[in-house]
Every structure is written in C-alpha cells, then in structure tokens.
C-alpha cells in the first residue's frame, strides 16, 4: 500500500497521535474552528527558509534576499518578512501598497514586470522605490518622461534575458529568448548606453529571472555567468553598477524532486561570483540580490479541505472536496502535483484490501477543476479533512471568485502555538460590493 509522503512538509508539521499538527496544534481543530477551505502557514517554516537563504554558506559579496510578493501577498506574511529585514520584489502598485501597509519601505522594493503602466511608474518613482527593473526600451523612455515630469530621478536596472533553458514547466520558464521577459544581452547593452544620457534616470543595477520551480543548479550557474560577463562588458564601457540581481526561481519539493538546498545554492552561486571577482579589473563590490518567492513560502503553507461527497464509479472514484480550482489553481493551470495528506491518520485493519484511489475534485463547473488525481487514501469517508501540501506559494495569491465562491480564510501558526487569523473568509457582501445593478431597461429601448 502506498504510504503517505510527509517528506514534503517542513519540520513544524508532524503527526502526533495520528493527528497532523503544526507546532503541536492539530490541524483538524483549525478546520473546525475556522471552517474549510483554509490556508494554514507555519511562521517558523517561513522564517527558517528566509534566514537560510539570507545567511547560509559564506558568500563573497554582501547579499540581499527579496521576497517576491506575488507568491504570497498576505499582509500577515509580508509583515513577518519585514521584521526579518527582507527586501521585496513587486510587480504592481497594488503590491507596493501591500508592502507599505505591512510596515515595509519602498526603498527596499525592486519593481519588476513586463507591462508597467505610466501611472504605476509614477507611483513607484514618487514613493521612492529602490529600483525599477526595466524590461524594454519603450519602458525606459516612458520612465524617463515620467520621472522628469515629477522632478525625480528613477533608479533603474535593465532585466536581461540570458536565453537559458530553466528546464521547468513552459508556463513558468521566463529566460528563453522566445519568452516575453527582459531584453537580450545586446539590446540591454544598447539600452544602458541610452539610459546613461537620459534625463530622470540613474543606472544602479542589472537583473535577470529565468523561471520558477527550477530544481537544478546548472541553469542558475549559466545565468549567473552570463550576467557577470555582461557586467564586465558594461564596466568596459564605463557603466558601473551598485547591485546585481539574480532573480528567484529556486524550486521546492512537491513530490520527489530534489532541489538544491539554500546552502548548496548559495555556495555554488558564491563560487561563481568569487571566480568573477578574482579576474575583475574594477575593484568595487556590488551588492548581490535575489528575488525568491516559492523557496521562502511554498512549503510553509497547506490548504485544508473537507470531503463533501464520495462518488465511487466504474472508471474513476471521485472525492468531491470543498476546495476547488478557484482556491488553488496550480493543478488546473500547470497540472501541478500537491501531496494529499489525511489530517487524521487511518490504519486499515490487517488483511484489508487495497485502499481505493481517488481523484480529488472541487465543486466548480469545469472538468479542469481537480486538485489531485489517483491518490490512494485508506478508508476515506465523507466529512474527513485532507491537506494539500506545499500550497504556500501561488496558492491563495492566485485564488479567484470563480463560481461566486468566497476566497478561503488564512491562518498562521506560531512556534508558541498561537494561531493568528490573517485573512477572514471572504463575506458574500464584500464579494458583491463593487458591482451595481444596471438601470438600463431593455424593454423600453427597442431591444427585440
Ligand atoms: C515571480 C518572480 C520571482 C519569484 O519567483 P519564484 O519562483 O517564486 O522564486 C522573482 N522575480 C521575478 C521578476 C518574478 O516575476
């Protein structure tokens, strides 16, 4: 019989007397208290992942780990990372507002994104965002106009697309020349030359980000080498940088992947940087920045759900649960795998046959509305609570109201066993609040 795979869970999650707990707090208790579907996060797991990225392995340059807000923008999570001294990678004005609300400073933000509006650029410049990661010549010119009209100088970095295969899912690969992100090395070089003489622009860095859920070191090493060679080329041209931003993308274990640990990652990138520093004429020491999302919060969050209906059938056994694609979109979007773990362990009596295998599906009216397929769950019954593991990143942040379903509540469990509600379950009233009934009357306007 297949055994459950608890290896995807960080340390604060463990079984205690058959009950899956976080810091010793039974998760089924949280389900009863807060209802389901429910996102649960371990603050200790988040803190430990952040700190190991920020401090593990000696590193030849000062390093700065930013959190990619889009992975999990909840204020409860952001405020924790503010207190740890994280920087933030933002992709919209909305995310900037979140960082500020969470107590963070605009100076500690880098602003990424392939299609920033003039309004967003203006807000970023005015609030003093630390660096705007520019992705096209058009954006550079736009930013120069916006900053000049505000009487400000915008600190910039150009995002280069190093044309590297990150060997990940095509939807989350960003560093190939056919992807929409960044500029080729040649185009970026031309943009830097132009940026040097543009009003309202100050060159501070260079950045890249080659994709997400990358589980090998080699694409990172290649990207780092290309970026560092590009920095040399800029320096030969008299363009000096204060920072080099290598982006994020470090993967986690969802099933049986073996991504590099933070220490392995940092010592390997550190060695690349060390070699580069040795051969370099210029003796300035730029800051090395990273933008991790998934590697910081991915493993730290679980989505808890209740089994509503069991529908065993000829071809398939369906377990309809109360979470759906609108709560956790990754399976529908990328056929992503999340481990399914029973909150209360069930041991079949000796001699019992094979456990049935189930497709976990949601109540949404789409055949693509599934969360997991073909999972063997012994003695599964209606009313059981299940966890979908590794749902801390791109889980709640991608949630929607499709099928007019309110978005789930979210709680954080702390090492002292306190449980903080960081998002109420959405109320139907607030879900409808922005909409208006139309006053147009088709009956009197000639409509047939
Ligand atoms: C999404 C994104 C990240 C974070 O990616 P992860 O895979 O979650 O680490 C970092 N930088 C940029 C520019 C991004 O778009």
Please write out the topology.
Blueprint: E1 13-16, E2 19-22, E3 25-26, H1 27-34, E4 38-42, H2 43-55, E5 63-68, H3 75-83, E6 87-90, H4 93-101, E7 109-111, H5 118-127, E8 131-134, H6 137-149, E9 154-159, H7 185-196, E10 201-207, H8 218-236, E11 243-245, H9 262-278, E12 287-292, H10 294-297, E13 301-312, E14 317-321, H11 330-334, E15 340-342, E16 357-361, E17 370-376, E18 385-388, E19 409-413, E20 419-423, H12 428-432
Parallel strand pairs: 4-19, 5-6, 5-12, 6-7, 7-8, 8-9, 9-10, 10-11, 11-12, 14-16
Antiparallel strand pairs: 1-2, 2-3, 4-13, 13-14, 13-18, 15-18, 16-17, 19-20
Task: Please tell me about this protein's structure.
This protein has helices at 27-34, 43-55, 75-83, 93-101, 118-127, 137-149, 185-196, 218-236, 262-278, 294-297, 330-334, 428-432, and strands at residues 13-16, 19-22, 25-26, 38-42, 63-68, 87-90, 109-111, 131-134, 154-159, 201-207, 243-245, 287-292, 301-312, 317-321, 340-342, 357-361, 370-376, 385-388, 409-413, 419-423. With 448 residues, it is of the alpha/beta class. The chain has two domains: 6-35 and 300-432, Lyase, Ornithine Decarboxylase, Chain A, domain 1; 43-294, Alanine racemase (TIM Barrel). Strands 4, 13, 14, 15, 16, 17, 18, 19 and 20 form a nine-stranded mixed β-sheet that branches. Helix 5 (118-127) crosses helix 6 (137-149) and helix 8 runs parallel beside helix 9. The structure holds pyridoxal-5'-phosphate.
